[in-house]
Amino acid sequence: MKPLVFATNNAHKLDEIRAILGHEMPVKSLADIDCHDDIPETAPTLEGNALQKARWVYERYGYNCFADDTGLEVDALDGRPGVHTARYAFPDRHDPEANTLKLLAELDGQQQRTARFRTAIALIIDGVEHVFEGTVEGHIATEQRGTEGFGYDPVFIPEDTGKTFAELGVDVKNTISHRARAVARLAAFLHTLQPSA
């Protein structure tokens, strides 16, 4: 199978995806194909943003490609930050610590703390588009806990665990996370394209 490009500049995401997919499916980064574009993410949905990024790489660089967009949807905040998860605190830049502090401040004193992480992955293979989704339910902690992971990991507690993603650690997260579930669906589909031995 031809190499796939993962349309992200996020080193954490790239490491996560490579760990989940394993060595049998080589994944190139944007840097590997000399793509340093500021790829727009202006769609109103996670699926739309993922497709926008994948189409950008496929149309301009000619590689089979996949891209993801992830949103944290908090019920007490009417589904926010949602599509604005990565730029929640500042619309013009990524600041994970500021995002987390803003979320905790907005939920201060709130009893209803249920939330979910949702990942949409858009794949383009030879011009044909596919979308895969993964969701993990949970709730938001009242304070940051744990040191592993990135982004909102210190405050998101996936259901039935009692620990934040940052406390559970990367290896556990990579088996139960929203991204892991979406990537599992992506991987299952990619395996159907590989010729049998």
Compose a concise summary of this entry.
With 197 residues, the protein is an alpha/beta fold. It has helices at 11-21, 46-61, 96-106, 165-168, 170-176, 178-193; strands at 4-6, 27-28, 65-74, 81-82, 114-125, 128-140, 156-158.
Key attributes of the depicted protein:
7 strands; globular; single chain; alpha/beta; 197 residues
Query: What's the Cα radius of gyration?
Result: 17 Å
Question: How is the quaternary structure best described?
Answer: single chain
Q: Point out poorly predicted stretches.
A: none
What is the H-and-E element order?
EHEHEEHEEEHHH
Mean pLDDT: 92
- Class by SSE composition: alpha/beta
Helical proportion, percent range:
25-40%
The helix count comes to: 6
| Proportion of beta-strand residues | 15-25%
Strand runs, count: 7
Q: Biggest sheet, open or closed, and with what strands and sense? A: 7 strands, mixed
Separation of the first and last Cα atoms? 13 Å
Shape: globular
Would you give an account of this structure?
The protein is about 35% helix and about 25% strand. Strands 1, 2, 3, 4, 5, 6 and 7 form a seven-stranded mixed sheet that branches. The model has no long low-confidence stretch (mean pLDDT about 90). The protein has helices spanning about 10-20, 45-60, 95-105, 165-170, 170-175, 180-195, and strands spanning about 5, 25-30, 65-75, 80, 115-125, 130-140, 155-160. Helix 1 (about 10-20) crosses helix 6 (about 180-195). It is globular and about 50 Å long.
